[in-house]
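Troubleshooting entry. The earlier prediction with adenosine-5'-triphosphate gave an output that would not parse, so I re-checked the input for stray whitespace and re-submitted. Clean input:
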Amino acid sequence: MSGQSPAVVSASKLGLTFQTNDGPVQALSNVDLTIGKGEFVSFIGPSGCGKTTLLRVIADLEKPTSGTILVNGISPEQAREKRAYGYVFQAAALFPWRTIERNVALPLEIIGLSQAEQAERIKRTLELVNLSGFEKKYPWQLSGGMQQRASIARALAFDADLLLMDEPFGALDEIVRDHLNEQLLDLWDRTNKTICFVTHSIPEAVYLSTRIVVMSPRPGRVTDIIESTLPRKRPLDIRETPEFLAIAARVRDGLRAGHSYED
Amino acid sequence: MTWLKPSLQAVLALLLCLIAFALGAMSKPEAAALAQPTATIAYPYMGAKGLIIGLLLIAALVSMAKLTSIVEAIMLFVGAHAAAWLLIKGIAGFEGTALAPYFLLLAAAWLLAWRCVALLSALRPSQSVARNALRLVIPAIFGAWILIIWEAVTRGAGIPFILLPPPSAIGARIANSLPILGSDVRQTIFKAVLVGYVVGNLAGFIVAILADRVPFLRRGLLPIGNMVSALPIIGVAPIMVMWFGFDWPSKAAVVIIMTFFPMLVNTVAGLAASGHMERDLMRTYASGYWPTLLKLRLPAAMPFIFNALKINSTLALIGAIVAEFFGTPVVGMGFRISTEVGRMNIDMVWAEIAVAALAGSVFYGVVALVERAVTFWHPSVRGG
Ligand SMILES: Nc1ncnc2c1ncn2[C@@H]1O[C@H](COP(=O)(O)OP(=O)(O)OP(=O)(O)O)[C@@H](O)[C@H]1O
Ligand SMILES: [Mg+2]
């Protein structure tokens, strides 16, 4: 853990219960979590365990029903109003009436950047996700994976210190996924951003993270937090080292434990 | 018989020609002339009868031969329309005397035109010019045949002018009354309809935004709006005439009232149409009410707004014309319709109806074109 830097996210006894027509659903219960500046934290767990809900609480898109949570030492709402984070949703959520370039420009228009600054950031982030040449296309003219990359470019162009990413690479093929994993690690290393990253892939979680949060459903809760011993600089072939495989095995055990609890 | 490929329409047309030929006289004067061979009675189709039947027979037979469909279509087109033209031209001066063969030949020509359209719509030309031309030609033949049958039946059967004048008479009336029609269009469409349409839609739109901002307005006004937009508001026309006088402002007022509620209801529905995720996205940017409205909610509402604009283009025309029935200065399309009907000048009534139909189509078409340009991104537009 990063004791020396101030906590970017600190949650204690966090709980969220949705009132639905079929009665209450406990999406989160008793979540204690501290994320320090510059950490790369992955959330992994079976479908419905509350990963998205936790990210949405951090982003002030949902209000917790119990416990406390602070983002950068202030309430999530204040942090949101200070534009403290960028969010990549599970689906691309591009506006069909805007070209890819104008979609990436959307947050930049809202925060009121100059045209020149907008153009520079659009060019840089579209290059980063390998979408150069598609600036003038509309989202519906692109494949699902390309749309998702455009939405990542949009979040990166926003350039907040905290990145919340909800299964950003779920719709991509292995090769593109590897490439973007590398790019993301590189970006994180250069900019010292804090990244919260939801994934279903154990290798992806181990490859990217400094810490892996294992969650399990009904009620959604944190069952294990695994510290990575991998170095900060990680070539792709680190995934074949015994150290890497050992961490992956621990994550898998944690997931199994969460599952068997249900039966 | 490998060189023949029979089609339903062509076979039926052949059959009708043969029956018509067997039945003999095309009109009552011809029947009379046949009965009294000595008397000199003038009758229609003295020479043209054989020509008409021949044209139809040749066209029907050629269309069944193994030729390329474009050649067949051209043959059918020429045969059917030449026969129809001869039929209509020949009956002039002998209106109301047509006998069964006249109608049988008309039906045969119509069947061949139908076959022609069927062949044309099956064509898949590779050049886009040809495709666009076809897109125009097919509906044009379709429309022309409505007029041909209307003309031939009203003249052949001698339908009283008061009930249904033939289109040629309506056309002649339009050509002879251009100044009157022009001033009526200026009064009704360029003043009442356009002013009412613009003001009514604008007001509906602005109130919808207000209702979106102010929750109590939304809860109070929307149920009323939904109810009122289902009422036959045209009933307020006499009251508007009492309030705003005989001239066009009272008609514009009717149009405003009629267009206001559809625009209000549709815009409010459209403002709720943007997705949850998109709105959450704007929230993560801490985007305020107005940026979210301009960048997300209004663009997403455009299909709804254009729906209202299209509905209103029709409503506005109806409203303005009907409102004129309740009193106007001596000009206007509704005024002309109500007075000319009283004077039994039915062709003038039809002329106004034709002009109103044309104006309505152009109005609707312009709105629909703008819609395609604005909502190009919507699946219903980009798919087609
Ligand atoms: N708005 C909501 N109203 C009611 N219940 C909800 C709502 N959002 C989520 N839930 C419930 O909360 C639980 C956690 O959902 P969440 O979306 O956080 O899961 P997840 O871990 O992201 O799953 P996945 O991997 O499939 O995306 C689920 O049982 C879900 O049904
Ligand atoms: Mg999820």
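This one parsed fine. The radius of gyration of chain B is 28 Å.
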